[in-house]
## 1
Amino acid sequence: MIIVGIDLGTTNSAIAYMTDDGPKLIPNSLGKTLTPSAVGIDADGTVLVGDAAKDYMVVHPDLGTTAFKRNMGTDAKVSFKGLDYTPEQLSAMILRSLKNDAEHYFGHSDFQAVVTVPAYFNDAQRTATINAAQIAELNVVRLINEPTAASIAYGYHESKDAKNLLVVDLGGGTFDVSAVEMFEGVVDVKASFGDSYLGGEDFTHVIASEILKSKGMSFEEMEFKHPLMISRLKYECEKAKIAISSQDNAIVRIPNLDGAFDAEVTPENSFKVWREQFEMWSSELLERLRVPINRVLADSSWSVGSVDEVILVGGSTRMPMVRNLIADMFSIEPQCRLNPDEVVAIGASIQGGLYADNKALKDMAVTDIAPFTLGVEVSREFGNEFKPGYMLPIIHRNRKIPSSQVKRVSTVYPDQKEVVVKVYQGEGRKVSQCTFLGEFTIGNLPKGEKGQDIDIRFSYDLNGVLEVEATVVATEQTTQHIIASKTRGLTQAEIDESIERLRQLKPSPRDKARWTALLKRAERQYEQSTLEERETMDAIMNVFEFSMMEGDKSQIEKVAKRLDFFLENGYDLNTDEDEGEGWK
Ligand code: AMP
């Protein structure tokens, strides 16, 4: 039995499997190993996944979606053409597409999967990921943490010496840092912290907004008034951002208010971005990167010097300024031998291979740290006054679970009859910044001065069930309250319904996927090209669509090659016989 490894990412996803020669990535229908985690619904109701969806969204920002991983485990839905889609269903479309790629590659569907999730994912998010796999009819052996997968990809699980690894993952929309301890096949995520609203998109946004500022425009206003112009400008800025990771500067073409590009590139409709300038604009973002890094070091009680290696994950760690920041902070060159976009899928496939051979590493810390701080509301004394609303942490974030901790609180006024224990989770100083989990009352308190002691014990188990016990110290009277994890996975009936719904959506036929993606790319580029280019492009696209209708594969391939050449090089390799019979 093959067990593939899947990185279900916020921006991009990938699938790999273990061969005798080591891990290997499985290409998608376009021959690429990265599939953008984007979903779109075409005019005729066909589902577009990956590059085709990403290109389609530049032209139709309202008919596609991406970054839905952020909403896993919540009720947030997106709606296209009057139909709602849950984050599980959207993730299932990506998983199904990856599964199809593997089926096509292996020639059979006899495989299972290890799927990766961020280390900080809580129960609800993990359950949602498993539900997404069930909707995609993919059999998941196990979820593993992304930083664990990255560490395995670098082979540290085989190391005899203990190693302290810091995994720094800067993707398209999220930033995660994890402290991973590895020793003789045991992989332990000691602490994990992140910023779920910091990623490559923010760096792209900086370029776009600075360019608009230089032209006397505001990003927010333009986005509201001219969304198409902004989606195209962002596309251009992302290209430039990637280019200046390996060169000094890049030119960004600025579309007009309708989103179209002028025929000629002039100083008015373009902007040359220099790397140095980009790094200056990004200084605030860079500072924000330090916060989770320092937090993870503190949470794992590591000093800067105790980090043996830093592993880079995520496309945005290719930016030289990010690598320099790491090198400056730790005085070591970060590990980037493996492609940062692929390292998680590769690690997951190695883990899958070990499971398949029954040689899996000793079970790793998957859900065995509390992802959030758990505590109760208390009042604080200010002079003679007590102010309610403060969080008293009882089980701290990142503490190993199962865990049982006790803290003593006391009454705040004489003859107090009862105490209401309000339980919260979160990192805020005040409970208003945390999530309310439940409450219960301890009554019949003995009469007396203020300051009667009550012990509050929190016992948190591996299934996310929190048992809270309050004991009045003087009388030993105990009150218990159980807060079950909020996770409500989907029922089998709900999964079946989603499977059926997904089956009814028109999938983009696999053999045509490459052509559909080419057409979507051409459509995007068409709208961005000059009048002159448009004429030629229009002619080739017409021939292409006509050949697709006719279904003559060799003719389609021929025109596809011609269209692809034009998109890449901006001129036509045309020979008249390509125009095809019946056309014109
Ligand atoms: P990931 O989610 O890990 O696939 O990361 C995707 C993000 O990485 C996107 O925001 C890309 O713009 C960004 N990215 C990919 N390659 C580069 C590069 N060479 N330089 C800068 N950013 C990059």
Note: The CA atoms of residues 520 and 573 lie 20 Å apart.
## 2
Amino acid sequence: MSKVKKVAILTNGGDAPGLNAVIRAIVKTARTNGIECYGFIEGYKGLLFNNYVKLDLNTNASGLLHKGGTIIGTSNATNVFNYKVTNEDGTVEYKDLSDVCVQNIKNAGFDCIFTLGGDGTQKSSRDFSLKGVNCIGVPKTIDNDVAHTDMTFGYNTAVSIATDAIDRLHTTAESHHRVMVLEVMGRYAGWIALESAIAGGADVALIPEIPYDINKVVAKIEERRARGKQFSIVVTSEGAKPIDGELIVKKKLDDGKGLDNIRLGGIGEKLANDIEELTGIVSRNTTLGYVQRGGTPSAFDRVLSTKYGTKAMELAMEGVFNVLVNYKDGKMGYVSLEDVVGNNKVVGAASGNTKESNIRTVPLDDDLIRVARDLGMCLGD
Ligand code: F6P
């Protein structure tokens, strides 16, 4: 006997391939079990403005498996616990409007809210759970940096897209005898850069976890030149930084206190300039950007998303709330939101995060690091 009769989904934060596949899996499992399913429009904004639609597999929720983006929209600038309000006189205030959301959920009679998102989304999800809302989080982000889960959906697709870009840069780099730099996403974690660098056979991979020494990068390129290799491929995370420098912030945003209010970008351009100056080899940067997040999910992500969605709905039916669905050692499971982003936060190898942050960075003893070093790839140190 299911513990829920009426549930709602929201997708929050930057989109990721597989969001619609998760929605589809939740809605289908709900239908199989006679449960009504709704979607809040544009993430937590939908909760605040009471904007939701019924998800129907015959109409608006049909044909979703391969579709990129999210059919219910998303918002990555809405922190309802600290919401930016501009008063008539132009002054700005930050207000906690979470009680409005709780009332909306109560009025609609939702027994559970599925929160599809990354670290910030799950923090709000946990805060709603403390206010008595039944929440189930599903870890989404192409950056693959949510604690307590080995893989978020969307990541595999992003790595494939980055790998394809490296393949394409290879042929043009070789033809022109150039250094090609590819800047990929990854604010605080280098998963996309490292894995695509290995998949694409790059010579240098720079990640936020290992501040780089430009002289080491140059030495690698020179060593290749001495061996007759006239070109090199450098992959960098947008969040990589030099040992003596800072993160390159393209823009500071003021769209909600407490959110991660910086837009990164520019390290690839800096690297290309520095490498050209220090080696004399013509160097170019390509910033891959939002191509990594858009479009159809890989087969792997479709299956992973489907596993996440069905598991989330199964947990709701069992009455297991205030948890994050996770994927650990090849198995679907769950962990309490409190352990992921709350007071009981579990720190260290089991979760992948640190005391200072909830982000699952690449551990320095990870297999990917070992593999890269064995291959002679320069990691900037
Ligand atoms: O969190 C995923 C991510 O793709 C980051 O790698 C990137 O920095 C960020 O989103 C950019 O998103 P937006 O410009 O939509 O805020």
Note: The chain has a mean pLDDT of 95.
